[in-house]
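Today's session is about reading a structure prediction critically. Students often jump straight to the picture, but the first step is always the sequence itself: look for stretches that repeat, for charged clusters, for runs of hydrophobic residues. Only then move on to the predicted structure, which in these notes is written as discrete structure tokens rather than atom positions. Here is the chain we will use throughout the hour.
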Amino acid sequence: MNSNSLSLIYQHYLEKTPFRKQNEHTYMMLPEAGNGHIYRVTTYSGIEIVYSHIQYHEPYPTNFASRGQMIELQFALSGQRHVNIAGLDYTLPSGRGALIFLQDFKARFHPPVNEQYQSFALGIPVSLFNYAASQLAARHQAAIEFNQILKGAAFHHFGFELDHRSIVMIEHLIKDLKSVHRSPLLMEAAALEILNRLMIQLFDLTPMPEGLSKEDVRKLHMARQILESSMIDPPSLIALSQKVGLNDFKLKKGFKACFGTTVFEYLRQIRLDYAMKLLRSQESNVTEAAMAVGYSNVSAFSEQFFREYGVKPSSLKKVF
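Below is the predicted structure for this chain, in token form.
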């Protein structure tokens, strides 16, 4: 199936829902059904980037069927929607994500009523997924492919918890979706990074650096998650090594081998990424953003920010 077919699946689905096209990238819910919007961008390679922020006033089940094939990365940000796909009940709770595979399917969607529902999705062309999977899996002598995953079934999914890095990247993409100054190329790059990150995680395709066992790599991923969830007050290197059960030498060497950066550089990067999100959304001023990500010295924060992004944090309003 080509990317045009994927775009048509999304278009046909939207035509079944109580939304009307407001402009090229925005769909508005009809007032009699509820309120809210769906934002949608199709990138050059055919990736569908879709954000929904809606609330139904009354039950509005939607039936949809397609003979096509599709892959979608779904992220439930608030609320949850129940779906019956090919006779199977499927629910994605808030704070969870899923990589779903569909072909020749029938679905009935049951959105929540009188509850804010926010979701983000990346529709992935099957050819793009198969290419990425073949490249990632080659190092592991594994075979991952759309037809092999479904084995003739209509539906299959892999669930996962949303981690901090993915949430930050999704929030950036949502901001871009709503902006008239969006860059589809940069949005595609971010979408590909999210896809690559989750494919490595879900299919256990992390490169195995020399001298590290599979258990070591699992612990290194745990260390990364700890850093992401405690960037305001992160543990020391020794404390982090104790938390994950690796000595500090293996933690430092293994982290660099697995993720291509040091522990401290990774911490700096996620802090600055989150600060960028706060400043772009105008949720915080420079001082508040610096404090929110663990910098007690605003001048040091501004210097690091400028070095990373080439723009002063105080100038972001002029840029965005």
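Discussion point for the tutorial: The CA atoms of residues 280 and 316 lie 7 Å apart.
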